[in-house]
Design brief:
Keywords: Nucleotidyltransferase, Transferase. The protein is of the alpha/beta class. 41% of the residues lie in helices and 20% in strands. It has helices at 15-25, 38-41, 52-60, 76-83, 98-109, 125-136, and strands at 3-8, 30-36, 67-71, 87-91, 113-117.
Length: 137
């Protein structure tokens, strides 16, 4: 059985989120998804529009998702130590990022593959938030 893992804020759920989850599930038998807690979102000096309890419930009810957990740490290797997943899925906007280059090395040592999916450039929670702010003015 291949266990996959991905994580995200999943605020203002959109087609990019759905594409990530659909593509991830197609490459593993069991997909575990970490939903970022409100406290962790604040590390970027941001605030999620949708509260954590609602975001995790939305993700829990996506048919491609088998298990949902709170993501309360940015340390992906720490999460792996608890879950022991085989493959991790992430958007390609993180490809060749210094932090993810380190993860590549760390995960390679334990046999975990990182798969980068194309980032959905046409939409993002940031873009949706910016559009909503403009509409409200």
């Amino acid at each position: 059985m291949i266990i996959g893992y991905t994580s995200g804020v999943f605020d203002l759920f959109h087609i990019g989120h759905l594409n990530l989850l659909r593509n991830a599930k197609s490459l593993c038998d069991k997909l575990i998804v970490g939903v970022t807690t409100d406290e962790l979102v604040s590390y970027k000096y941001k605030k999620a529009v949708i509260p954590f309890e609602e975001r995790i419930e939305i993700v829990r009810n996506i048919k491609f998702v088998d298990t949902v957990i709170p993501q309360d740490s940015m340390d992906k290797f720490e999460v792996w130590q608890k879950l022991k997943y085989d493959v991790m899925f992430v958007g390609d906007d993180w490809f060749q990022n210094e932090r993810w280059d380190q993860y590549e090395l760390q995960f390679k040592e334990v046999g975990v593959k990182i798969i980068y999916f194309p980032y959905t450039k046409s939409t993002s929670s940031t873009l949706l938030n910016e559009t909503l702010l403009k509409l409200r003015k």
